[in-house]
Specification:
The complex is a heterodimer of chains A (117) and B (114).
Chain A: E1 5-7, E2 10-13, E3 19-24, E4 31-38, E5 42-50, E6 53-56, E7 65-69, E8 75-79, E9 88-95, E10 107-108, E11 112-116
Parallel strand pairs in A: 2-11
Antiparallel strand pairs in A: 1-3, 3-8, 4-5, 4-9, 5-6, 7-8, 9-10, 9-11
Chain B: E1 4-6, E2 9-13, E3 18-24, E4 31-37, E5 43-50, E6 55-58, E7 61-66, E8 71-76, E9 85-95, E10 99-104, E11 108-113
Parallel strand pairs in B: 2-11
Antiparallel strand pairs in B: 1-3, 3-8, 4-5, 4-9, 6-7, 7-8, 9-10, 9-11
The chains are: A mainly beta (117), B mainly beta (114).
Chain lengths: 117, 114
């Protein structure tokens, strides 16, 4: 079936504006993850969802970042009052089941490139 | 702490073997992964190895794991120009017993010269 999709693929915004990034996981995948890839920081884990709940939000860089997932499917990552340091590629991944004993293989989307001017 | 390190760049000639190295810090990692990222594309899972294995071979790819030294390597045999990409190693860290998160290395840019 289709892989993980993300929209928009590119987003340019002005400092101080809010942005919403969307992720459509693979159908049937219960776990969803957000990562950020930025120059000098590599890939960093932001948040994960099991169903619609996010048990661990400690990876979010600041309180300007929030995420939600509805219907156990689509997720949105919202960044309020964007700053230039928020410029990065935001990657979403999903996995079938988040069981510790499984390979917990995560399949990644193509990412959203966010540029804050 | 959680830290995964890789060398930043590797250049090889087409047809040679490439070896990309990675060191990690969390000895409790159950799985270790290699991902490939081509220009403008997302991360593609190449292979993974369970922590109780020393070696895994998958066609042109060989993964070696030295758990004592926390060292992981990816060998690509007969490297082709299409293998040019950034390669990330990642360790799997358990999150509160529920799921795992991936801690990625900085990535190694593999440049294959024709």
């Amino acid at each position: 079936g289709a892989g993980v999709s993300q929209s928009p693929s590119n987003k340019v915004t002005e400092k101080g504006k809010d942005v919403e990034l969307r992720c459509d996981p693979i159908s049937g995948h219960t776990a969803l993850y957000w990562y950020r890839q930025s120059l000098g920081q590599g890939l960093e884990f932001l948040i994960y969802f099991q169903g619609n709940s996010a048990p661990d939000k400690s990876g979010l860089p600041s309180d300007r970042f929030s995420a939600e997932r509805t219907g156990g499917s689509v997720s949105t990552l919202t960044i309020q009052r964007t700053q230039q340091e928020d410029s990065a590629v935001y990657l979403c991944a999903s996995s079938l089941v988040p069981l510790v004993s499984s390979t917990d293989t995560q399949y990644f989307g193509p990412g959203t490139r966010l540029t804050v001017l | 702490g959680e830290d995964v390190e890789q060398s930043l760049f590797l250049s090889v000639r087409e047809g040679d073997s490439s070896v990309i190295n990675c060191t990690y810090t969390d000895s409790s990692s159950t799985y270790l992964y290699w991902y490939k990222q081509e220009p403008g594309a997302g991360l593609q899972l190449l292979t993974y190895i369970f922590s109780n294995m020393d070696m895994k071979q998958d066609q042109r790819l060989t993964v070696l794991l030295n758990k004592k030294d926390k060292h992981l390597s990816l060998r690509i045999a007969d490297t082709q120009t299409g293998d040019s990409a950034i390669y990330f190693c990642a360790e799997s860290i358990n999150l509160n017993g529920a799921t795992n998160k991936l801690i990625f290395g900085t990535g190694t840019l593999l440049a294959v010269q024709p």
